[in-house]
């Protein structure tokens, strides 16, 4: 059963918080709150590829950040990770952007500080390849 689950994992929907670097999935609409996402092999049509998973640098008892504070931390974490993972320069690449999954105010209150950054096409189209450098 364990091996079957590993083989089927790229085709299953699963917890958004469980995404790992290198996994491809269908990202949510901007501003949408999600618990689960649809995983795909990166060779199948997909809209996002995870390139960073980590935590925001903040105290456990910190209040939920303002939009600008969130954006500043996301940029500080995701932009260099995008460049390293893809081999592209985020500042000059016209084809790719990134999105992120972040805590909701409720999950923040429960101690969630996780951030998941994913690459996506600027035009919103899907791709059937990995964006990882040297793929």
Described by the principal axes of the CA atoms, the overall outline is: globular
Strand order of the largest sheet: 1-3-2-4-6-5
Secondary-structure-derived class: alpha+beta
Main beta-sheet strand count, sense and barrel state = 6 strands, antiparallel
Head-to-tail CA distance between termini: 30 Å
Which residues form runs of ≥5 with pLDDT under 50?
1-12
Order of helices and strands: HEEEEHEHE
The total strand number stands at 6
Mean pLDDT: 86
Radius of gyration over all CA atoms, rounded: 15 Å
Strand content: 15-25%
- Count of helical stretches: 3
What does this structure look like?
With about 140 residues, the chain is α+β, with helices and mostly antiparallel strands. It is about 25% helix and about 25% strand. A six-stranded antiparallel sheet has the order 1-3-2-4-6-5. The longest helix is centred in the middle third of the chain and has 20 residues, at about 65-85. The radius of gyration is 15 Å and the shape is globular.
Quick synopsis:
This protein is an alpha+beta fold and 135 residues long. The protein has three helices and six strands; from the N terminus they run αββββαβαβ.
What's the SSE blueprint?
Elements (H helix, E strand, L loop, with lengths): L1 H7 L4 E3 L8 E2 L10 E5 L7 E8 L11 H20 L9 E6 L3 H5 L4 E8 L14
Antiparallel strand pairs: 1-3, 2-3, 2-4, 4-6, 5-6
What attributes characterize this protein structure?
single chain, 135 residues, alpha+beta, 6-stranded antiparallel β-sheet, 3 helices, 24% helix, 24% strand, globular
């Amino acid at each position: 059963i364990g091996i079957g689950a590993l083989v089927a994992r790229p085709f299953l929907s699963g917890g958004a918080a469980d995404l790992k670097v290198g996994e491809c999935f269908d990202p949510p609409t901007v501003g949408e709150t999600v618990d689960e996402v649809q995983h795909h092999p990166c060779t199948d049509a997909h809209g996002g590829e995870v390139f960073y998973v980590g935590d925001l640098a903040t105290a456990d008892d910190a209040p939920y950040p303002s939009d600008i504070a969130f954006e500043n931390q996301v940029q500080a974490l995701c932009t260099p990770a995008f460049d390293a993972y893809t081999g592209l320069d985020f500042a000059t690449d016209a084809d790719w952007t990134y999105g992120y999954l972040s805590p909701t105010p409720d999950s923040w209150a429960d101690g969630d500080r996780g951030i998941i950054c994913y690459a996506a096409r600027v035009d919103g189209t899907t791709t059937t390849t990995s964006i990882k450098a040297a793929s």
